[in-house]
Amino acid sequence: MQFTTKQIADFLQGRVDGDETIILNDFGKIEEATEGKLTFLSNPKYTHFIYTTKASAVLVNDDFVAEQPTPTLIRVKNAYEALAQLLQLADSLKPKKQGIHPTSQIDPTAKIGDLVYIGAYAVIGANTVISDGAKIYPHAFIDDNVVIGEETILYANTTVYPDCHIGNRCIIHAGAVIGSDGFGFAPDAEGRYNKIPQLGNVIIEDDVEIGANTVVDRATMGSTIIRKGCKIDNLSDIAHNVIVGEHTAMAAQTGIAGSAKIGEHCVFGGQCGVVGHITIAAGSKFGAKTGVAGTIRQQGTYAGYPEQEIHGFRRSFVALKNLPDIWDRLNEVEKMVSRLKS
User: Fold this and answer.
1) Distance (Å, rounded) from C-alpha 35 to C-alpha 68?
2) Which residue among the candidates 101, 173, 240, 311 is catalytic per the annotation?
3) Does the predicted model carry a pTM greater than 0.85?
4) 3-state secondary structure of 276
5) N or C: lower Cβ tally within 10 Å for the chain?
């Protein structure tokens, strides 16, 4: 990447506050960036770094007011969104992988689109469709009757079980497993667990990103569905017959139990757990480690286990921190009452 501050401002529909001719060739964090790099400021906690950064230019929000001298500023409506646009631009300029490696194994019945990349030792099963522009990295395994959409990326060592459908422009990171058996077992009279065959599939719609070593289980019957635009972080588990609504985000180690229905635009902090067979209202937000034990009928922000509305959770947490002092005071009161009685 090599652009002037003016070119970047024009691309972002912003304006330069300072030197328009500075050449920028890389990005850097505001506390570490050096000359020639572009950084950004969106979180007020980092404001003090803008007065000491060595970066040549800083993306800031339009309403930023400097209290000391700063490097050249590029003022935009939203600095964080603008940075995302620039990073996408820089990524699009990287050379694109193409071609089919001679060590890959592709079933003769598979259909391979144009401008596809299939890396070393990747396996493509029977009747599978790899659409135009898709990228299948080394050692990926894609079983029979799978559909991979246009420009979708499957990184190394991903596994896609039979009959699953992955939409366009999805990103599946290394080690993820799509379509493994759901955790379905029926105990008999002697307490032995008999496996329930999982005969459904997984449907992942367009523009979904799934993190490394995340698992999305196939349905017992029908489909486990990840709706368009969802972002699921590393080491998460989506169980059988779950439906995740559009543009929902889940941080790492989130677990969703079977047949839960998640509304659109929900947000889950890290290590959240959701019990099965419940429904969660659209737009709901859950703090890290929240245990969702029942249906959420109203949009809100929740925390704790079992989940409670965030203001109630904070009050409970304050009371919990004060519990040792309350216990000591209660003991003193009991002693006083005992003395009075005697």
Assistant:
1) 19
2) 240
3) yes
4) coil
5) C
